[in-house]
Amino acid sequence: MQTKTANVKIISNIFAFGTGKLLLLAILLILSTSVIKAQQGSWTPLFNLPINPVSGVTHSSNEAISLLSDGSVIVESYGVDGIAYPQATGNPLVCNLTTPPPIVTHTGTEREKYFGETVRGTRQYDTLSHEFLLKDSIYVFHKFSEDTTWMHINTDDRIYIDFYNFCKNENIGKFEKVEKLIKDTSNTSTQAASDTNSIIISQRQIELNKKIVNSIYLNKLRYEKVNIGKQYIYASYDSVLLFDVAIQNPLLGGNAVYQARTMMFIEVYDDGYHSTRSHLINYNSTVIPPVFDLYPNPNNGNFILKYHISEKEDAQLCIYDITGRLLKKYELKTDETQINVNAYELEAGTYLYSIMVNSALKEANKIVIIK
Q1: What pLDDT score does 248 carry?
Q2: Domain tally for the chain?
């Protein structure tokens, strides 16, 4: 029945556009018979057609035909990204398709159930709506990237395809590109990953954390590729940045928080689904005693650090800007238990501080200056 319906549409097109094109259309009818008889939802590459005699439009070489459930056909353009973009229905005139898309195995009901609210932006969140929406969008984008057939099911495809393309051109897609390049073991891919990561403009804390962790991990990866068998030692400012990400709550900081903890060998207890607090359990398998206390925080650039170190220890308080650039460094004297810091010249904003003892990181956190 579907074959008959599709053939009727083709014959209608023949009479509609005059006898001058009858011969060419008749040839196309014969050549497209294999497509008309194909299974529902199947794709079949045909032949190069430089000009569509119906529309007079020159066709590209990446178009394909799909048979719909009602017997009609649809011309689609199969892009280099593996996504099919619908063009015009009821037209059997197509061009060659070198790599047909995979056969659709999902249903529209499944897709709407799993991804509909996220794609349409209708999902409601009780708290942290921006963070959860971003996480859900990342999840859906990854699923669509892994299996493009989720986007080619029925007439609602367009909204899912648009969602995918939007994410691909935003930071979500850029970070996925970095991840794919990291998995590639070639040196050129490592550099390409660094270049891509460096131009990403982070708009949320989750994205900033991801960019920081990617950057430090890529530095480590480059070093280990050149110095085979040697252990990479994080620079002090890298340790500060990683530590700051690691002690965040993953609900606000994203998956990069877990990556930072793994890289720093840090265990953190996150208390509560809605909590934004994290408590340090251990660092490098050693419990850190509470021997450092910086207050007030926030402050106006004048603050106090109370500490306790032994006579044989060499300790420093370092202050960095948010990019990890060292701004101030203070020696902590072993015969004293506190230092009064006067940093009025620092502008209002968020900074990072670290306490290094015998070149080992003992504490790192944020300090906020208000003026």
Answers
A1: 85
A2: 4
